[in-house]
Amino acid sequence: MARAALLLILFLAAVAQTPAPALAAAACEPEPCGNLTIWPPFGVVSRGAEENRCAQMGFQVHCTGDVPYLGYYEPDYGLQILDIFYGNASLLVSDVHKLADFSNRSAGGCHVPRASTASKIAAPFFISGLNRNLIFYNCTEEPPSPRTVRRAGLVDTVCLNNTFVRAGGGYGDPGDYNIEGCNATALTVRGPPAGEVNPGYYRELISDGFLLIWQPPPAAAAGSSSGKLAHSSN
Fold first, then answer.
1. How many other CB atoms are found less than 10 A from the CB of residue 94?
2. Rounded Cα distance, 154 and 184, in Å
3. Omega prior to 41 cis, within 30 of 0
4. Alpha-carbon span 51 to 118, nearest angstrom
5. Are 178 and 138 spatial neighbours (Cβ–Cβ below 8 Å)?
6. Taking the CA of residue 127 as centre, how many other CA atoms within 13 Å lie in the half-sphere pointing to its CB?
7. Cross-sheet strand order for the sheet of 43-45
8. What's the rounded Cα separation, in Å, for the pair 115 and 181?
9. Where are the beta strands (DSSP E) in the chain?
10. What percentage of the chain exceeds 90 in pLDDT?
């Protein structure tokens, strides 16, 4: 009897010392991260850990400084989660680390992005067709002619030095955006509900993010009519 009482005391002491997020994850309860509440199928993964048993595969979230990032990519370069719309299986993310490229403090100095946003997207997520493209150019040879600048709608970036940005079409648009003598990189942005994006606001567009979609797991699909799953996570 005394031994059983001692074991109970030790168990209760261990529970009392367990961090609240760990207890929440064990019970598959929602967890806060900054101004978002993370519900299944997502789950917050502690720093140094790789899994949360409550998160579906690929739905791990890193909460770094109260900022949520998709967990399948390195947090220092990952996609920041701005909002999650559980009712229609979509989320708003931002490739915010791209903004550092436009600073003289970045590696190699101020430059336009060199890698497409799409390179960071992996299953179970897909880029929504509602998004738009921004096309950045680094012209390493002769600068585009004034006629090309007008026709393509090129706008100088803050880096100058023959770097430009233009509005592209919808995501997946097979349009030809090549300009002779220039390297082109496409970034995905959400843009306005209708009409073209204004390339002059490229930093704001990157900050405002773009939409990803996922195929909801059966349990989430069955529960999507509940009040908790029908709204965004804010």
1. 21
2. 12
3. yes
4. 24
5. no
6. 23
7. 43-45, 60-64, 67-70, 80-85, 90-94, 210-214, 125-127
8. 18
9. 31-33, 36-38, 43-45, 60-64, 67-70, 80-85, 90-94, 125-127, 132-139, 155-156, 163-170, 182-189, 210-214
10. 51
Q: What is the dihedral of CA 43, 48, 53, 59, to 10 degrees?
A: 40
Adjacent-strand bridge partners of 139: 182
> Residues 71, 82: contact at Cβ < 8 Å?
no
Of the two residues 27 and 13, the one the predictor is more confident about is 27
Q: Which two tokens stand for residue 126?
A: 């897909």
* Spatial separation of the C-alpha atoms in residues 78 and 58, rounded to whole Å: 13
Tokens of 9: 């005391």
Per the structure block, which two tokens stand in for 106?
Answer: 């970045």
How far is residue 145 from each of residues 140, 150, 162, 163, 217, measured CA to CA in Å? 14, 9, 11, 13, 52
* Through-space distance between the first and last CA atoms of the chain, rounded to whole angstroms: 49
Torsion of CA 127, 96, 82, 62, to 10 degrees: 90
Q: How far is CA 63 from the centre of its chain?
A: 13
Q: How far apart are CA 158 and CA 140, in angstroms?
A: 17
Q: What whole-number distance in Å separates Cα of residue 133 and Cα of residue 53?
A: 36
Kindly report, residue by residue over 109-153, the tens digit of the pLDDT.
Answer: 999 999 998 888 988 999 999 999 999 999 998 889 999 999 999
Residue in the structure block whose two tokens are 């509900």: 193
